[in-house]
Amino acid sequence: MIVLAYLRQQKISKKQAMITGRREMKKSHKCEVIFENGGILATRRYSYADIKRMTNSFKEKLGQGGYGCVYKGKLPDGHLVAVKILSKLKGDGEDFINEVNSMSRTSHINIVTLLGFCFHKTKRALVYEYMPNGSLEKLIYEENYFKLGGRHLGWDTLYQISLGIAQGLEYLHQGCNSRILHFDIKPHNILLDENYCPKISDFGLAKICHREESKISLLDTRGTAGFIAPEVFCRNIGGISQKSDVYSFGMTVLEMVGGRKNIMTGAERTSEIYFPHWIHKRLELQEEFGLQNVTTEGDTEKARKMVIVSLWCIQTNPSIRPTMSEVVDMLRGGVDCLQVPPKPYLTSPSRSSPTIPMSMVV
Where is the Protein kinase domain (predicted)? Predict the structure, then answer.
C-alpha cells in the first residue's frame, strides 16, 4: 500500500510539474510577442550563456531582494555591470516587461542605464551599469553605517543626492516622450555612483502613460509600505497621478534627514515613533532639529530646506503637493522663501503592518 501511494504521489507530482512547465512556456511566449511588437529589441539582448560568462557563473553577489539576486559582472570590453537575475515571473511577466520597456525609453544622469537584458525560456536577467557605492539605504541609516564602520555622508552630499533624485523624477514626469510614473521610490531603489550621484532604479512597478493624462487608473495597490501615497490605497483621498511619486520622494528624503526609518515602533517615546510628525513639531516651534553632524550654518540651511520640501511632498491631499519641477526649484532656492507646510495627518501603511489599509498617527 505504501509503495502504491508513493507511486501515485510521484505521478501527481510529475503531472503538476508538466502543467507548471506549460504555463511558464506560455508566459515566455507572450513576453516574446510583446518584446517583438513593442520594438524593445533595440535594447541589447544577451543569451543566458552571456550572462553566466559576464558574472563568472554568478561568483560575486551584490544584493538580494524579493525579485531575486544582483551579481557583479564584467562586459568583454572591461566595463563593470550589475546583473539582476529575476527568480520568478509574476503574472504574465508584466514586471519584467515594464522594467525593460520603461528603462529603454530613458536617458538621464539620474536614471540608472539599462545596458541589456536576457529572456530565454524561464531565464530572465537585466544588465545595468555598475554603481560602486550601492544603494542609498546602506549609507543613510545610523544602524547601517555604524555597523559597517562608515560615517554620516555629510549634509552637502545628502542635499545633492536629494536634488539629483528630484531631477531624475522631474525627467520621468516631464522630460520623456511618454510620462513614466515609478511607483516605488525608496532608498533601496536609489543607486549611487563613485561620486555619490544618485540614479533611480527598479522600474518593475512603473507605469507609462500619455503626457495629457493628469490622472491614471490602477487595478492594484503598488509600492512599498511606508512610501506609498495615501491615494494609491485609499481612492477617496484623490486621484492617482505623478503626485504619488512626489509623496514617495518626500518620505525618502525624510529618512535621509533623520538617518532612521520614518516609522519606528521601537522608539522610546511615543512622539518619536513617526519621524515626519516629530520633525514637523520641531519646525513649527522653531526648535533645533537635533540632527546628526550639523556643524555649520550651511548644514543647518540644507537640513531645514530638505525638511520643509519633504513635508510639502507628503501632504495628504495630492493637490497640495508640489510637482517635481517645483520641488527642484524649491531645493535650489533660498530656505527663507519656503513656508512651513501644514501637518500631514495620513500616512501610508506602516512597515510592520502592511495589511492595514491606513494608519492615523497622532
Answer: 56-346
pLDDT tens for the chain, 362 residues: list them: 565 555 566 666 665 655 555 555 555 555 555 555 555 545 799 999 999 999 999 999 998 877 789 999 999 999 999 999 987 666 567 778 888 988 888 999 999 999 999 988 888 999 999 999 999 999 999 887 766 667 889 999 999 999 999 999 999 999 888 899 999 999 999 999 999 999 999 998 999 887 666 677 777 778 899 999 999 988 788 889 999 999 999 999 999 999 999 988 776 777 778 999 999 999 999 999 989 899 999 999 999 999 999 999 999 999 999 999 999 999 999 999 999 999 988 655 555 543 333 333 33
184 in catalytic set: yes
Of 98, 99, 66, 68, the closest CA to residue 84 belongs to 68
CA distances from 347 to 85, 264, 329 (A): 33, 13, 25
Q: Give CATH superfamily name and number for 137-360.
A: Transferase(Phosphotransferase) domain 1 (1.10.510.10)
Q: In CATH, which of 3.40.50.300, 3.30.200.20, 3.40.50.1370, 3.30.70.870 is domain 30-36+45-129? A: 3.30.200.20
Catalytic residue among 50, 95, 184, 245: 184
Residue 84 labeled ligand binder: yes
> Is the Cβ–Cβ distance between 198 and 164 less than 8 Å?
yes
> In 3D, which of 86, 87, 74 has the Cα closest to residue 115?
74
Three-state DSSP state, 288: coil
